Amino acid sequence: DSHFRLSAVLCVSLVLLYGNGLSADTINVPADHATILAAIDAASDGDEVVVAPGTYYETINFNGKAITLRSSSDNPEDTIINASGSGSVVTCESDETAETLLQGFTLTGGNNDSGGGMYNLNSNPTITNCIFSENEADKGGGMHNDHSSPTVTNCTFTGNTAEGTGGGM
Questions:
Q1: Structure pTM?
Q2: In this predicted model, what pLDDT tens digit does every residue of 142-152 receive, in sequence order?
Q3: What's the rounded Cα separation, in Å, for the pair 53 and 106?
Q4: How far, rounded to the nearest angstrom, does the alpha carbon of residue 39 sit from its chain's CA centroid?
């Protein structure tokens, strides 16, 4: 009967709509993925990537994802992302919003034209409880913001250098 079919279609629609959109995943590094970037690539908006203490030699890009990337430690000195001189440690250049969160890391070893530690282009991520240390760039040794307004809370900038402007930011 048509009432039963309408009810069944409505129930299936609600399950598909809410069942797929409300569950956020937690992805652990290195347990689920060996690198932070691999975990970011596997994540979807709303997911949380949790990184165990250690040093991770890589550069990362949020690729426009509204995710939380955080250390499992309360001390940012315990979880280090080291770019080893191969670009910005962290990049947000795909219209990231305040829902893109970076929390609890030391960002070091960045070397780029703009933003050794972090480069933000047309993006407004949230960065909290991070240390930007020993990064280099022509502009913004620690962080460079190009048409961007990130929210930066409880972060330390130390030992960053810039050839031109903004050793820290």
A1: 0.86
A2: 999 999 999 99
A3: 11
A4: 11
